[in-house]
Design a protein that fits this description.
four-stranded antiparallel beta sheet, alpha+beta, minor pseudopilin epsh fold, 4 helices
Length: about 190
């Protein structure tokens, strides 16, 4: 490099306006944004994708509702079992097929109200839930009210039920798909 080139570059480096002007010159001349046809094509593609996705999502809804209701029943059983053990009293779970509700209370009322497997005025609900729309109870065994004893085991009316049977509730959705929730004789809760 000769002396004149070095002086020219040195002067350019010192001038701050030179760099600002250089950056302005680097900008593209096409800064108008998207054209109307481009926007319409994108909107049309999004509309087609939505039309494909909505029916698929709607087909998944009954299964999702069935799973949600099964988890709700599982939660009711788990709360009842936990309450029975921690409060050292019976805990009841009642299913209503008419209004699709699940209610759990500790059966620890005073006197004769204690351990009668019925909701008395002195016993508050510890859990209340509802099953989702389109879900119904297909089968309950043995009763619509289930009781855990103070040890967290199913409370049954006979030795045979206590040793061999388990409590079962079947839920069904609008697609006739089933989920069952079982309580085995030692109090284990399982969804299948």
């Amino acid at each position: 490099m000769d002396w004149h080139t070095i002086c020219f570059l040195k002067d350019r480096w010192k001038n701050p306006d030179h760099w600002r002007l250089t950056l302005l010159n680097l900008k593209s001349d096409n800064n108008h944004g998207f054209t109307l046809p481009e926007m319409l094509i994108v909107l049309a593609i999004m509309g087609v994708m939505t039309m494909i996705a909505i029916p698929t999502f709607m087909n998944l809804m009954p299964g999702m509702r069935l799973n949600s209701s099964a988890r709700q029943v599982y939660m009711a059983f788990a709360r009842a079992r936990q309450g029975a053990v921690t409060q050292n009293s019976d805990a009841c779970v009642k299913f209503s097929q008419t209004d699709k509700t699940i209610k759990v209370w500790l059966d620890n009322g005073p006197g004769g109200a204690r351990g009668n497997s019925a909701k008395d005025a002195s016993e508050a609900y510890v859990f209340e839930g509802t099953m989702d729309d389109g879900i119904s109870i297909a089968f309950l065994y043995p009763y619509d009210t289930f009781t855990f004893n103070a040890r967290g085991l199913p409370k049954t009316s006979s030795w045979i039920e206590e040793q061999l049977m388990s409590y079962v509730i079947y839920l069904v959705n609008t697609d006739s798909k089933y989920k069952n929730i079982r309580i085995n004789p030692v109090g284990g809760i399982k969804i299948s």
